[in-house]
Every structure is written in C-alpha cells, then in structure tokens.
Amino acid sequence: MSATTDSTTIVDHSHSLIDNEAFNFNTAVPITSGSDSLRRNRPKSLRLPAGQAFDPTKLALGKLDNFPMDGVQSNSTQPNTLLIDTTAAITTSNTPQTNNAPHHTAPHRPLPLLPPQQQQHIEKPHHTTLNYPPPPPTPTSNPTLHSSLTNFSVLTNGTTSNSNNNSTASTSSGSTGKLALSAAEIEYADYLQRAQTETFIDIAGCNFIYRSGTDSMNRPVIVVIGAHLPAKRIDMERVMLYAIKILDPVVESDYVLVYVHTSTSSDNTPTFAWLRKLYSIFNRKYKKNLKLLYIVHPTMWVKLTFRLFQPFLSTKFWRKVVYVDDTAQLQKFFGRDLGLPAMVFERDGVVRSETGVSRGLQIFGVPLEEVMSRPENAGVTVPPIIDRSIEYLRARALNQEGLFRISGSNSLLKELKRNFDDGEEVDLSTVEDPHVVAGLVKMYLRELPVPLLPYDFYQRFVEAGKLPGGSPQQIDELKTIIRQLPIVHLDTATHLFEFLEEVAAHSGQNRMGAQNLAIVFGPNILKSQDENITTVMKDAPFVNAIVQTMITSYNEIMGAKGVI
C-alpha cells in the first residue's frame, strides 16, 4: 500500500515497530508501509482527504476512529507524548522495509493496561533501552515531619495497596516492608509544627481548654468549657492549633477529658465540618489513650452530634462516654474542685429546684445507657441496683416460695426506691423480707423508659415466639436478635437471665419454674410501644413463650454456648 496523489493512507504497525522515521510525533507526515506481514495481519487504516495534514496528537490520544492503539496509551494532559510499556522488549530497525524484503513481526497481541509504576512519559521516543530512576523522596518543608518520614519508604517498584482514600497507604520497598504516612498523619504533623511555633495569647485568654491536675488514678484531666469558645468570632483554624498544642504532650499516655456544655449557645458551637476535621486529624493516640469522656449538662444537640459520629466510633469508645447531669457526680468521682466556672453550679441549682431531686442521682425511670454512663458506674457493665439485688437473692432466697410472684411491703419498697434515687448508700443486707428486694428488681425493670428488650426489637421477638418452643430454629433466631441489642441492654439481660435460670432450677422448693417466671417478667421486659390492650392480649402468649425459652435455653442462647 502506498501514498496516492489524492489522499494519504496511514497504517498502524505500532504494535510491532516504533520508528522515528515512520512514526514522527513532532511533524505531521504520512506513514506508509507495504509489508506483506502487515497485509497478512490486516491492519486497519484511515484515509485522509487530500491536503489534510495528519495530526499526531489525535493519534497519541487515541482520537482516530477505527484506528487500533495497541501498545499506545493515551495521556490527555501531555499532547505529543507516547506512553510505552517499560517492561516490554522493544525491537526496531532503522532499515526501511520494502515489498520485496521479508519483514518479520511479532504476533498481533494488545499490550496490557499497565499500572502507573510501569509507565513512563517519553518525549520523542528513541530506540534505546528505557531505564528510569526511582522517584525522589517526598518533599517537605517541615523538618519535624521530614525526620518522621525518614522511617518510611516510598514505593519504586512492586505493588501498592490502599484500604481507602483516608487510610494509611501500605507499601512495600524491597525487604523493608515499612509503611507510608497517611494523609491525616502528614496533616497532623504539619499542624503540630505550626502549633509549636505560633503564639496564642488571644485564644488562651478565652480559657476554653485547660489542664486540671489528675484523677484518682493519677491520669491527667483536661477540661473544655464550651461556653468560653467564641466560635463565630474567632479563627477556628488557630483554635485547632491551640488545642493540639495543649493536648499533644498529654495524650502520649492515659488521660481523662471533661467537656462542660453548660450555657453553650449557637455562638459557641463549632460547625460539624470543623468537628469532623478535628476527629480525622487526631491520630490514634488521642482515641486509644482517652479513658473517660465526661460530658457535663449535655443537651439534645450534643447527643445528636455524637450519634452522627456513631458509624465511625467503636463500641469501646461509647463505653468511655459519661453523661453528667449534676456536678455532684464529678465531686464524688474526682474528690475535688476541677476549677469549673460558677455558671455550672448555678445550673445544678436550677435543675434541683425544678425536679426536687438531682437528676444526676436518680436511677428509676432513667434510660439504662444514661445510668451506666455515670462516673460512679465506670468500669461496671450492669446497673448496681440489679447486681446487688441479685447477689442478695442468690444468697438468701433461691428456695423462697413464690419468689418474684409474692409482693413485699409496699411502703418499704417505696422507701428503698427513694433512697436509691437520692444517691444514698443502701445496705440491702438489712432488708429482712426477700420479696421486697425481688419487688425492687421488677419495679426497676418495669419503669425503664426503654424496656430491657427494646421496643425496636419487639416485633421480631414476637415472631420468634411463634416458632416451636426451644426448637433449633427458635434458638438460632433468638441468638441473631440478641446479638444486635445495645451493649448495656445485652449485658443486663444476660445477668438477669442467668439468675432466672438458677431460680427455675430450684422450682421444687420455690414453686417458680420457667413458665411462672416468664409470666411475671414477660410484660416488664418485653412490651410494645403501642399500649393497645388488644395488641397486648394478642401477643402475650408469644411474649411469655420467648421469655420462657430464654430461661430454659439460657446456656445455648446467651451463655457459654451462645452469644456471650
């Protein structure tokens, strides 16, 4: 095939030959070939109108229709540039081929799409072996960061794996196997250097964050006063720098954070984007070494904000969060003044005058999560009133006839409830009638605003109750549901049903088998938010059946062989 007077024929043989004379990227020239081999391989061609120059940019970018681009990869940002596989052998000849001379070409095989490490941009390709040096170290103007980066290597060959865009890039460099810093770690190192070099007289004057000695376990205590932060009138970027300057030396080991939300308004509230950025650049030591986070006088906004972060926070973190409605709790836990402003204690007085009781001490009618997040309950998994009552009954009442069925003294029961709600030290060993303590357990469970087996799971429990009692299908379904319970509800339910199994095992003496216990506890721990009497009566048999199975099959469902 040859060029004619009225048109130019361009034949693609880039898969077998790369020749500056026949494939010139810097001038628009016709390309011809009469190779028998090319005719046999039936290369596609494009006929251009007479007088129209061939545009190599379109060829390099793969913009010619019906023009095979085997061995050529496009690069829209660098015109007149050819991307060549540096791992493939390139053979070429400067001797022009004629129709009579044999021309041997490799079989027509498309070259694979190559990873970035095996690609190189080449201006004016030549017929030489393509070697290129490894990329230079990551440049940085931060001496502190640079010294940290010397412990890491940059990939020059091999593979790179990323779990996601925000995660640390795991790279392999020969036999070193070292890790590269994540974007967040690099950003934090830069913030830290800036924080150590700048002055913050204006921000320090706000006194919104300060160190307040140590707690009873000698852990540093950091106090943050939300109302002291003029978020709408201050550079929040510098606030982040100042916070890093205060916190970085502390978070190297275990520490405690007290956030006071008292009297905080919209003027003091950072944006969600700022909070998200703060969380993202605070590295692992901030989260791992935080042992307790006290939130004083939380509002619905605070709890909602934490809920928005829930998908990113582990179960372990939620066990560190303690909501404090009354500073009397802090006094009891720390045993000293934390240097809180007067407005915090004034708020306590308002709450007490409105309710007649310190909300921070009340336990009846308070959600399990709130009770368990209080300082006095740090480190325990079951509400103390349940734990202590079960301990009392296990020691003194397993053989008591009618346990949990017979009522005790109503006046004594109310007195015990009031003592617990006032935060008094209640000595149950002085109570002579076990039925009073058993009634206390039932009352506490009955008054929970969210049942022990929460409303959200009610219908699923009822449907499981319709399966054959104690069957493998029912037990498997119950295990599936229970695994999804909130952790505080799961821990408390496990503790309760373990004890109820013991009570049922003594039914020969106490006359309280699993069926009787299910009739007593079913309506108190598993109920519908819809209190329609028709619904309650219709579902009652299934509720009782579920509770009975959870007692008789405790070990398979929640015990050693079950969820726990």
Helix content: 25-40%
Unreliably modeled segments: 1-47, 57-106, 124-132, 138-177
The number of helical runs is 23
Number of strands: 11
Shape: elongated
What does this 3D model show about the protein?
With 564 residues, this protein is of the alpha/beta class. 39% of the residues lie in helices and 9% in strands. It contains 23 helices and eleven strands.
What is shown here, in short?
Helices cover 39% and strands 9% of the residues. With 564 residues, it is an alpha/beta fold.
List its traits:
564 residues; five-stranded mixed β-sheet; elongated; alpha/beta; 11 strands
Provide the fold topology.
Elements: E1 7-11, H1 36-40, E2 45-49, H2 56-60, E3 82-85, E4 119-122, H3 143-149, E5 160-161, E6 170-171, H4 183-197, H5 201-204, E7 209-214, E8 220-225, H6 236-247, E9 255-260, H7 272-281, H8 284-288, E10 290-296, H9 300-308, H10 315-318, E11 321-324, H11 327-334, H12 342-355, H13 368-372, H14 384-396, H15 410-421, H16 434-446, H17 458-465, H18 472-483, H19 487-505, H20 507-510, H21 514-525, H22 533-552, H23 554-557
Parallel strand pairs: 8-9, 9-10, 10-11
Antiparallel strand pairs: 1-2, 3-4, 5-6, 7-8
Helix pairs in contact: 4-6, 14-16, 14-19, 15-16, 16-21, 17-18, 17-22, 21-22
